[in-house]
């Protein structure tokens, strides 16, 4: 399998199962830019009769003209005279008796230029397509446009779709297929910067070091990812500079609502809508203490969820003026002084999201972080049924002293209020390597996992 297309089994199975139904299907496929939606579609339609149309921003009239040409080319006939989309669909359906996939890629471009487009497609579906065996896919990258223009109950298309698929980032384990020759440590470093975005992953070379890739592709005016964040913010938001200030505030350690408001100079009551938009897009996330029972707890922190945005605002944006004139000295010093700490935070996320439930047979009902004043535990996993609680620490270091970490965990665990009289405690420590592993601390089971252990787990 090529490095360009890996680990989309779920998405392809979903589409192929719907294809077998033989009835009309209307699938909305969406997700953030660069996530690989078009590649999924191409893999799906490659062995099927299909008509693929890439929308642009030139408006409804020009797009319909182009679509007519594609229909004529598919049928091998002259272009139909009408510019009415419903009539074009009827013309196509009457001539094609077999199952056909019709794809409108970047559909959000049409909605952006013409708010009536959802109504146009609604009439075409109601009057022509719903009684056909057409497999219609509307695909778009503008999350806000797709969710409000198609998926919202206010949209004319609401209730017409037969399925929708939000394409998510690739999981970390996909790096083993994408970079089969990379050691685990290097893949963790790559993932810490690129996340699970195939377009970004394709730009990094396994033949180069992590710093060399960053220098050439992100910190270089000629790099293919140098303007990526600016581009994405302008494409998605009407106020890109406002969103930029908010993300920058969080990147600089302002994790609470009031702190973010003060840094970005936005009133807290106005800030909430901006934060929610960033959460919907998957750029930031809102976390509460994993043991918190109140649904509307005020013990909330915000962090940057998207690895590329986090790296960009932590390492690139502060030195953008220098990098614009090809001055790398300050950036390079900062990178080598702080990158390990940055990777350490992303290492925690990998463990929480892809390792914990895979390693332990316990079905943890909640996995998250815990903090109280100056105390913090990287991972706390809870099993409400068995009252098991796992306390975990992640150390992106070599030769970690497991006994010392276990002692620190035991001290902090005393402050965690969760079934204190009945719970069964165990510890887990994750590190690059250990000076010595341990299996028990004061009656509690201790699990120690180094990179070699984690590599085996991820490849299972």
Protein architecture, described:
- The protein is of the alpha/beta class and 460 residues long.
- It has 3 domains: 9-166, P-loop containing nucleotide triphosphate hydrolases (Rossmann fold, 3-Layer(aba) Sandwich); 173-347, Arc Repressor Mutant, subunit A (Orthogonal Bundle); 360-459, Trna Endonuclease, Chain: A, domain 1.
- 46% of the residues lie in helices and 18% in strands.
- It has helices at 9-19, 37-45, 60-75, 85-95, 107-113, 117-127, 143-151, 175-178, 184-194, 198-201, 210-217, 228-236, 240-251, 257-264, 268-280, 307-316, 320-324, 329-359, 402-413, 451-459; strands spanning 25-30, 50-54, 100-105, 134-140, 163-166, 284-288, 300-304, 366-372, 375-383, 388-395, 400-401, 424-431, 434-436, 440-441, 444-449.
- It has a 6-stranded mixed sheet, sandwiched between helices. A 5-stranded parallel sheet has the order 2-3-4-1-5, sandwiched between helices.
- A hairpin with a 2-residue loop joins strand 8 (366-372) and strand 9.
- It starts with 8 loop residues before the first helix and ends with a helix.
């Amino acid at each position: 399998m090529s490095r360009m297309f890996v680990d989309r089994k779920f998405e392809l199975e979903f589409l192929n199962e719907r294809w077998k139904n033989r009835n009309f299907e209307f699938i909305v496929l969406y997700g953030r830019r660069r996530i690989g939606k078009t590649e999924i579609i191409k893999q799906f339609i490659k062995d099927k009769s299909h008509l693929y149309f890439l929308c642009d921003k030139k408006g409804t009239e020009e797009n319909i003209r182009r679509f007519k040409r594609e229909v004529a080319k598919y049928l091998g006939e002259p272009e139909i005279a009408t510019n009415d989309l419903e009539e074009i669909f009827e013309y196509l359906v009457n001539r094609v008796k077999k199952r056909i996939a019709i794809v409108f890629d970047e559909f959000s471009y049409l909605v952006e230029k013409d708010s009536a487009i959802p109504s146009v497609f609604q009439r075409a579906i109601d009057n022509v397509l719903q009684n056909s065996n057409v497999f219609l896919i509307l695909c778009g990258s503008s999350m806000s446009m797709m969710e409000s223009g198609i998926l919202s109950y206010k949209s004319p298309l609401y209730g017409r779709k037969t399925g929708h698929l939000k394409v998510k980032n690739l999981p970390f384990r996909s790096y083993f297929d994408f970079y089969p020759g990379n050691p685990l440590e290097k893949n963790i470093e790559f993932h810490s910067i690129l996340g699970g975005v195939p377009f970004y992953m394709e730009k990094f070379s396994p033949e180069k070091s992590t710093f060399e890739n960053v220098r050439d592709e992100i910190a270089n005016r000629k790099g293919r990812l140098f303007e990526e964040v600016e581009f994405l913010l302008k494409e998605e938001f009407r106020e890109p500079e406002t969103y930029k200030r908010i993300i920058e505030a969080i990147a600089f350690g302002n994790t609470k609502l009031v702190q973010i408001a003060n840094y970005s100079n936005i009133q807290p009551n106005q800030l909430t809508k901006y934060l929610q938009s960033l959460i919907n897009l998957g750029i930031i996330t809102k976390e509460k203490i994993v043991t918190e029972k109140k649904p509307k707890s005020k013990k909330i922190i915000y962090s940057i969820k998207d690895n590329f945005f986090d790296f960009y605002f932590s390492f690139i944006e502060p030195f953008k003026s220098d990098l614009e004139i090809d001055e790398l000295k300050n950036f390079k010093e900062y990178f080598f002084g702080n990158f390990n700490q940055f990777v350490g935070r992303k290492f925690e996320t990998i463990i929480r999201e892809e390792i914990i439930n895979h390693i332990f047979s316990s079905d943890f009902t909640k996995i998250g972080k815990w903090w109280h004043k100056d105390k913090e535990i990287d991972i706390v996993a809870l099993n409400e049924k068995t009252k098991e609680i796992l306390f975990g620490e992640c150390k992106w270091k070599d030769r970690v002293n497991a006994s010392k970490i276990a002692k620190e965990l035991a001290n902090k665990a005393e402050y965690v209020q969760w079934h204190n009289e009945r719970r069964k405690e165990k510890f887990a420590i994750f590190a690059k390597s250990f000076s010595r592993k341990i299996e028990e601390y004061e009656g509690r089971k201790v699990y120690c996992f180094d990179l070699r252990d984690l590599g085996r787990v991820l490849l299972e």
